[in-house]
Amino acid sequence: MAEVLKSTFVLAVNNLEASRKFYCEQRGFHEDFSVDGWAFLSRGACRLRIGDCPDAQPMSASQDHSWFAYLHVNDATALYWEFASKQVTIWQHLADKPWRMREFAIMTPDGHRMVFGEEIGR
């Protein structure tokens, strides 16, 4: 069976430059390249394509469970404090969940919600 080698998330953003700065300066992503209206970003195995859509409804207008990604990490606590030190908006604070994950969630400037989790208690 074919194997999935990596994932790319494609996001509509209202302000491409503001979102690029957020991901690169506050979230530690690297800009791999850009073309007119798009930025291609990466951090480790996570790839993002952010597209300039100034008229798109912001994700902040969506319901509470409108996550676009759940990213598995090896040190949720360190990542939580890295983001907190850069004034990233924390949507859910770091907590150990009954499903054996240490999780937290952030919100992007466009209202996209991302959850980060580390397996614990195995």
Q: If you consult CATH, what is the topology of the largest domain?
A: Signal recognition particle alu RNA binding heterodimer, srp9/1
Q: Roughly how much helix do the residues carry, as a percent range?
A: 10-25%
Strand order of the largest sheet: 1-4-3-2
SS summary, helix count: 2
How far apart the termini lie comes to: 28 Å
- The domain tally reads 2
Computed Rg: 15 Å
Element pattern in H and E: EHEEEEHEEE
Low-confidence stretches: none
Mean pLDDT: 87
The CATH class name of the largest domain reads: Alpha Beta
Sum up the overall morphology in one term.
globular
Q: Care to count the β-strands?
A: 8
Mind describing the biggest β-sheet?
Answer: 4 strands, mixed
Q: Give the amount of beta strand, in percent.
A: over 45%
Descriptive notes:
The protein has 122 residues and is α/β, with parallel strands linked by helices. Helices cover 17% and strands 45% of the residues. The chain folds into 2 domains: 7-54, Signal recognition particle alu RNA binding heterodimer, srp9/1 (2-Layer Sandwich), CATH 3.30.720.120; 64-122, Signal recognition particle alu RNA binding heterodimer, srp9/1 (2-Layer Sandwich), CATH 3.30.720. The protein contains 2 helices and 8 strands. It is globular and about 45 Å long.
